[in-house]
Design goal:
With 446 residues, this protein is mainly alpha-helical. The protein contains 21 helices and 6 strands. Strand 1 (143-144), helix 12 (149-159) and strand 2 form a beta-alpha-beta unit. It is a multi-pass membrane protein.
């Protein structure tokens, strides 16, 4: 609420031409709060507001801006105006911003970096997008396993200012192979002559080409302050800090929630997003769902004769398709979460299917009993039997399909969230109708 009020004040000051007032209000805020205010402004106003900030203040605020807002500023102001702010970014944040910029502007910004910063950025850019190597920081400090704790503390004092963090320190051998992790507290309180290896713990680490979301969830779930990142030979090349890991997890959650609602995530705040951007985020999924829904229409057409003979069957179609879709979505959401937290892997398909079919049968038995009673009282026992058996069957099939689909997606290197709730619902609708009319024909003899 405070951010929105400040953003409104800044915008009004700029519209009235009171640029000094706008700059003073922003400069009085902590850098992170000032960045939140700029993120809330439209593109034109944000550019003016950033211009009126004092230079040293602008550098710190730029560091906290959303990558899309950073890219907008670079594109609008030009590389010269933001070169210093770009130089002060951490290499992982710099790499994320470069991904958002046109190649020509990105090359110009890299060219303006100091040699040391250019080398650190190149390390991060050398890994595939979406990998933890792109999100790690190559600015870390490490100690050797055979050196004394007193020597290690002196190393931290000398080089700690240039490191991303100093509280969790990777321990390596002299070939830079990771052998453990030690806390700053442990070596500070230890006898200076004791070897570091006596205080090191087994490392929780990630490989640079590993999926960033998977590594970040492991870092967050285990509360690791800094997760070492190694290459394919086990040599230390960077760290993933807890705050960076939390950002990755939050972004992945936003993306999953968006896709579960049959849309792509917006890259900018809703009120600042163009009509075209919002349409593009939604329309592709609507096309996919429309094509999928044709299956349902085709099923109804095939069983048109059955409906004509027993019109009452049509009244229960919304109930059955709703139960099937919701059951499948529940299973898919549960398994997708289990995949993300590494509780389930691609080799567990049979175990997941067996568990979900039993869950579906259990839920279906409870719901089917209610359906049998209500439909039997409202119409006749035959209709009640059809509804009861269909609910049991639909729940079993929907739960199994919903549980297996995310694993199938993972096997073919597709984000499990792509199999969104509406997509699974539509699939289960068609399958449920086939089951429904097949049981109806068998039980009622039509």
């Amino acid at each position: 609420m405070q951010t929105a009020a400040t953003a409104k004040n800044v915008q009004q000051a700029i519209e009235r031409g009171h640029l000094a007032d706008a700059g003073a209000e922003l400069a009085a805020l902590p850098a992170q709060d000032a960045a939140a205010v700029l993120d809330a402004l439209d593109r034109k106003t944000r550019t003016i507001a950033f211009r009126v900030l004092p230079k040293d203040r602008a550098v710190r605020v730029f560091d906290h801006l959303d990558p899309d807002a950073q890219a907008d500023l670079v594109s609008t102001l030009g590389t010269a105006d933001v070169a210093e702010a770009f130089d002060h970014l951490d290499p992982d944040d710099r790499a994320e911003l470069l991904d958002e910029l046109p190649a020509k502007i990105a090359k110009q910004l890299i060219r303006n970096l100091s040699p040391a910063e250019r080398e650190a950025t190149a390390v991060v850019l050398g890994f595939p997008r979406g990998s933890v190597g792109r999100r790690m920081s190559p600015e870390y400090i490490h100690v050797f396993d055979d050196e004394r704790c007193g020597t290690a503390v002196e190393r931290v004092k000398r080089r700690g200012r240039d490191a991303e963090t100093i509280y969790a320190i990777p321990v390596t051998d002299h070939q830079r192979r990771l052998v453990g992790v030690v806390g700053l507290r442990e070596i500070l309180l230890a006898d200076p002559d004791e070897p570091v290896a006596d205080h090191a713990n087994p490392p929780i680490f990630a490989r640079a080409d590993e999926d960033a979301e998977s590594a970040a969830r492991r870092c967050v779930d285990r509360g690791v302050l800094a997760m070492p990142v190694v290459d394919h030979e086990g040599r230390l090349i960077g760290i993933l800090t807890l705050d960076d890991a939390a950002e990755v997890v939050e972004a992945a959650r936003d993306e999953d929630e968006a896709r579960a609602g049959a849309r792509e995530p917006l890259r900018t705040p809703y009120l600042q997003s163009s009509i075209l951007a919002i349409t593009r985020a939604r329309v592709v999924w609507l096309f996919v769902l429309a094509v999928s829904a044709i299956l349902t229409v085709n099923v109804l057409e095939v069983f048109e004769g059955t409906l004509e003979q027993k019109v009452a069957l049509a009244l229960f179609i919304p109930l059955l398709t709703g139960i099937g879709g919701n059951t499948g979505s529940q299973a898919a959401t549960t398994v997708t979460r289990a995949i993300a937290t590494e509780e389930v892997t691609g080799t567990d398909v049979a175990r997941v299917a067996f568990k979900e079919v039993r869950v579906g049968l259990t839920m279906g038995a409870a719901l089917g009993l209610v359906g049998f009673g209500v439909a039997g009282l409202a119409y006749d026992r035959g209709i009640g039997t059809v509804i009861g058996l269909t609910i049991v069957s639909v729940c079993a099939v929907a739960a199994t399909v919903g549980g297996v689909m995310p694993l199938a997606a993972r096997a073919i290197k597709v984000d499990p969230a792509v199999f969104s709730t509406p997509f699974i619902s539509t699939f289960c609708d068609a399958t449920g109708l086939v089951i429904y009319f097949t049981i109806a024909k068998a039980v009622l003899g039509i």
